[in-house]
Amino acid sequence: MAVARFVLLSKEEQDLIHQYSLKSLQEIGMLIRSDSTLKMLQDAGAEVDHSKKIAKMPESMVDEALKGAPKSIRLCARDGKNDLPIPVGGPPFVATTGLGVYVRDMDTGEKRPSTREDIADFIRLADGLGGVDFVWTSITANDVPQFSHGLHELWTAMQNTTKHVNGVSIMSAPDSRKQIELASLIAGGEDELRKRPLFSVICCSIAPLSYEGGVVEGMVEFVKAGVPVMSMSMSLSGGTAPVTLAGTLTNANTENLASLVITQTAAPGSPHIYCSSSAPISMKTGVINYMSPEQCLIAAGLGQMARRYGLPSMVGDWGVNDSETPGVPHSFTETMGVALSTMGNSDLVSGIGGIDAVKGVSFEQAVIESYIWENFKGFMREFLVSPETIALDVVRQVGHGNTFLTHPHTAKNFRKELFFRDKAKLAWEATLSDSMVPQAKEAARQILREHSVEKVDGSVIAEGDRLIREYESAAGV
User: How far apart are CA 276 and CA 267, in angstroms?
Assistant: First the structure.
């Protein structure tokens, strides 16, 4: 099938990034603040300095991990029609943003700390939006004990969508085990969760080349339970990675290969997704710059590296607004980069509804970006190239200098071959504009009024709530 793809790296350049990633792992190594993970890697062949907590991984460990990792996986959902098989053929599957700490109130327009109720509403809105394929837990529950906020976020999200849920918060191995217990309640047991993973989880390395103990130990627990792990690198050019694009690409690739070695050592054959949310920092403010031209180049390059390895990936970002207020505030030049990010070989993309460089969410922005994405993904649909679609027999019938407009072949196939944008939604795409915000607000309110999500059984909810209380009580809360 023919699909529009943004290609950045030649084969020789991919080989060089791979070669220097291996060099980095073998000569510099990874700082891993977890004794149990260091021991596991040492037993598998890594050179470990326990005093410095550095693990150096030989090429053989990387090769073994790449050989054993699954090349395709299915992210499952409560409703099977929302399952996501990856890798994709056409446009990537798109998720909401995450993990913001505030919400822009639809009624007052004010920023305020987000709550569990906001999570429930935002996820239910996403469940009703056609442009959203799966959900991140999206925003922080600030009204619960912070050491257990990830449990509340996952549990709230899973009750308010029948789409796949991607968890964002990992605190520790016990926290991860409790997340697995909660998801198992929905799935019908841990064996059923392994067969149909209703949630996946993002496990971030800390660029450059390090892991926090709780996160890496939590990652090990997830893969042992069959939960797909997304090994996100946030390599920030000029901040946590070399300012050169080649240096950023290599650092992010190195961290992904290291994460893959850890997951495949802990649980050979476990589902693993190559992942990045890398971009330059602003040289004026030091803040991550998702609207930079380089962001889409980094995404495209890492997407190619993931495909080189045969790994499913989430390396692109979708979101047309990093300001504090809803709308489309950027120029065509800036939004072109965001668009190209989705065309850079990524199977999964996130970002719908985010504002303020992912620090917050807006219900109106989620509607705007979902609608824009519905139109944009027409550029990435698959085209079949075959003798039948070349249609030489039709050319012969129409003859020289005549029209195909009245031929039955045109009437039969034009709706399958041509993409028709929704004119009303298309009007929302004017840049440097917030004129669509009132309509988006009303659309969000209508979805929240009218869209219903299949309810989780009350006894299951009660048991999940009990598990969270038990976890909090054990910590003296």
Answer: 22
